[in-house]
Amino acid sequence: MGDNIPVMTLDGPAGAGKGTVSRAIAKALGWHYLDSGAIYRALAVSVQDAGVSLEDIDGIVELAKRMNLSFESGDVPAVILDGHNISDRITTEVCGNITSKIAVYGPVRQTLLQKQREFRKAPGLVADGRDMGTVVFANAQFKVFLTASAQERASRRHKQLKEKGIDVSLTGLAKEIEERDRRDIERSVAPMKMADDAVLVDSSDMSIEEVINRCLALLDS
Ligand code: DC
């Protein structure tokens, strides 16, 4: 379905800058944007609100089937779950950690597959996640694996939180990021890994503009 519509996938660990870079590329190209992490995070909110246990795979799958999710356009699209704006709730570290726990379940990932593929619409799509180039859009024409050192990712996140007036320990943050990476890499279903045909971009010592330009250059190669 829509296999000829161009897709650029950006996979990689939390804090590598995928969100900022993907949105900027989508804007520059006039393409659609899929924040697949937001779909998984919205499910985590739904699980919390319904009081479903994180071990109850069937219960989580049921919620994944039922959840009514939409994105409202904007620089950072608002996430609307069952009529409520949950944009603030999904960005917390707690939500990120719960999300990576429910994202290990194969049946949950299977249920969310179609929802993600529906974003492939003309004139093109920029898809941001962990398994965009390996599973969801394995036939994408342009694939990037964007990474940065765990230390650099933790300090970027620390700075972002500080700007929002939230003071957390940098060491604690680095530890959480490493734990989350481990869970995402070690899960048996659709683990975070670089697709064989992806281009590796390490953003540790690059500016956002440099990363964006490197990705856009793929379209001309
Ligand atoms: O990209 P993010 O930080 O919003 O992702 C939150 C969690 O969701 C991440 O720890 C793993 C999971 N996730 C996933 O398993 N597959 C995706 N395509 C996107 C996110």
Please explain how this structure is put together:
With 221 residues, the protein is an alpha/beta fold. The protein has a single domain (7-215), classed as P-loop containing nucleotide triphosphate hydrolases (Rossmann fold). Helices cover 48% and strands 15% of the residues. It contains nine helices and eight strands. The strands form two sheets. It has a five-stranded parallel beta sheet with strand order 2-6-1-7-8. Helix 2 (36-50) crosses helix 4 and helix 3 packs parallel to helix 5 (106-117). The mean pLDDT is 93. The structure holds 2'-deoxycytidine-5'-monophosphate.
CATH superfamily: P-loop containing nucleotide triphosphate hydrolases
Number of discrete helical segments: 9
Strand order of the largest sheet: 2-6-1-7-8
Overall mean pLDDT score? 93
Kindly report how far apart the N and C termini lie.
Answer: 25 Å
Write down the secondary-structure element order.
EHEHHEEEHHEHEHHEH
Specify the CATH class: Alpha Beta
Rg (CA only):
17 Å
Major sheet size, sense and barrel closure:
5 strands, parallel
Low-confidence segments: none
Oligomeric composition of the shown chains: single chain
Identify every distinct bound molecule in the structure, by name, code or SMILES.
2'-deoxycytidine-5'-monophosphate
CATH topology: Rossmann fold
Give the tally of β-strands. Answer: 8
Count of all domains: 1
Give the % helix: 40-55%
Which structural class fits the helix and strand makeup? alpha/beta
Fraction of residues in β-strands? 15-25%
Label the overall shape.
globular
CATH architecture call = 3-Layer(aba) Sandwich
